[in-house]
Amino acid sequence: MKTKEKVFLELIEQHKGIIHKISRMYMDTKDDQDDLAQEIILQLWKSYDNFRQQSNFSTWMYRVALNTALVFFKKDQRKPITTDAVPDIPADEASNTKELQLAHFYQAVQKLERLEKALIFYHLENYSHREIGENLGITEGNARTKLNRAKTKLKELIKQQGYGF
Amino acid sequence: MAFDDLQSLWNSDKSGDSIAIPANLEKLKSAQLPVDKFRRRLKKEFFAQLAAVIFLGFVPAIMTFNAYLLFAFYLMYFNFVLICGYFFIKFYLFYKNMSNTALTSKDNLYAVYYDIKLSNEFYKVFSYCLLPFVIVFVGIILINDKNISPTAILNKSAAISQSKVFTIVGLLLLVIVLMVAKTEIYVHVVYGKYAQQIKKLLDEFREV
């Protein structure tokens, strides 16, 4: 294997959690999530030559991964799942409770618009409004307004699932 | 659950650690991105069109054309090949042009939207450029098939029955309708859906 490819795969291995999170936010079935994760890795590899070493790999990766997710469409033959089943997990087990909360979160996120998902993602990754705006190509003020709306919408969606904020 | 709880929940999510990263990148194939889909279709379309252009060159030999129609046919064919060649080069350049996914999301979407629209318009122009040639080719083939002398037509002394005229005009109209329908349906099916989706997405980026 070439050195460049090896280095790239090592970087992907370190950051695969992010690819998984984006795939889970944008796609509702396991098959679609796997397809999106594969597509993200492929697009990252195709763009790897454009990556400038002086910038942070994860910053560059977030942008390429989200840009891929934004224009990734499901295979037509697959039926969309309209009701994501939240796993029935006993609430008294701490780790399982986290799983349950995450399942509620991802289920609610599915109902957001694509741009809203990107805003929530950057917010959860601790990006400032200015950084979110820079990455998405919108103004800081627009990023703030849209993010606040997306957060309110997400809270409502989670509440509707009986899991209040 | 407060939003801060969600933040810590997000940070503690390690479910991605279990995903498998491919050992070899050569095995990865693009599946779903609209521009990649167009590129694949473009490649198929290129080979289909190339086969059609080559086949058309052998039509006079297959149908044993009259000598006086050969010149007219190959004169048109030469122009036809030139136009096809021009569009093949354009399609090849588009095929090779890689979108830079490291742009800002909005710029990236505009680039994708532009690629879709450009590809869409190229395909339409290409199809409609070929339409007059196809009409002339079909006309020449029909005249040859019905054994009508072009000289007689020019001298207005050809004895063409009304039924022959109706057949020729009817067939030519049918060819026009089929080509226009094929172009419009193809463009709508292949590009229309994605163009709408990307446009909708771009609308989400508007200032509020």
Automatic annotation (TrEMBL), chain A:
<dbReference type="Pfam" id="PF04542">
    <property type="entry name" value="Sigma70_r2"/>
</dbReference>
<keyword id="KW-0805">Transcription regulation</keyword>
<protein>
    <submittedName>
        <fullName>RNA polymerase sigma-70 factor, ECF subfamily</fullName>
    </submittedName>
</protein>
<keyword id="KW-0804">Transcription</keyword>
<dbReference type="Pfam" id="PF08281">
    <property type="entry name" value="Sigma70_r4_2"/>
</dbReference>
<dbReference type="GO" id="GO:0016987">
    <property type="term" value="F:sigma factor activity"/>
</dbReference>
<dbReference type="GO" id="GO:0003677">
    <property type="term" value="F:DNA binding"/>
</dbReference>
<dbReference type="InterPro" id="IPR039425">
    <property type="entry name" value="RNA_pol_sigma-70-like"/>
</dbReference>
<comment type="similarity">
    <text>Belongs to the sigma-70 factor family. ECF subfamily.</text>
</comment>
<dbReference type="InterPro" id="IPR007627">
    <property type="entry name" value="RNA_pol_sigma70_r2"/>
</dbReference>
<feature type="domain" description="RNA polymerase sigma factor 70 region 4 type 2">
    <location>
        <begin position="106"/>
        <end position="154"/>
    </location>
</feature>
<keyword id="KW-0731">Sigma factor</keyword>
<dbReference type="InterPro" id="IPR013249">
    <property type="entry name" value="RNA_pol_sigma70_r4_t2"/>
</dbReference>
<feature type="domain" description="RNA polymerase sigma-70 region 2">
    <location>
        <begin position="11"/>
        <end position="78"/>
    </location>
</feature>
<dbReference type="GO" id="GO:0006352">
    <property type="term" value="P:DNA-templated transcription initiation"/>
</dbReference>
<dbReference type="InterPro" id="IPR013324">
    <property type="entry name" value="RNA_pol_sigma_r3/r4-like"/>
</dbReference>
<dbReference type="InterPro" id="IPR014284">
    <property type="entry name" value="RNA_pol_sigma-70_dom"/>
</dbReference>
<dbReference type="InterPro" id="IPR036388">
    <property type="entry name" value="WH-like_DNA-bd_sf"/>
</dbReference>
<dbReference type="InterPro" id="IPR013325">
    <property type="entry name" value="RNA_pol_sigma_r2"/>
</dbReference>
TrEMBL record, chain B:
<feature type="transmembrane region" description="Helical">
    <location>
        <begin position="125"/>
        <end position="143"/>
    </location>
</feature>
<keyword id="KW-1133">Transmembrane helix</keyword>
<feature type="transmembrane region" description="Helical">
    <location>
        <begin position="163"/>
        <end position="181"/>
    </location>
</feature>
<feature type="transmembrane region" description="Helical">
    <location>
        <begin position="71"/>
        <end position="89"/>
    </location>
</feature>
<keyword id="KW-0812">Transmembrane</keyword>
<keyword id="KW-0472">Membrane</keyword>
<feature type="transmembrane region" description="Helical">
    <location>
        <begin position="46"/>
        <end position="65"/>
    </location>
</feature>
<protein>
    <submittedName>
        <fullName>Uncharacterized protein</fullName>
    </submittedName>
</protein>
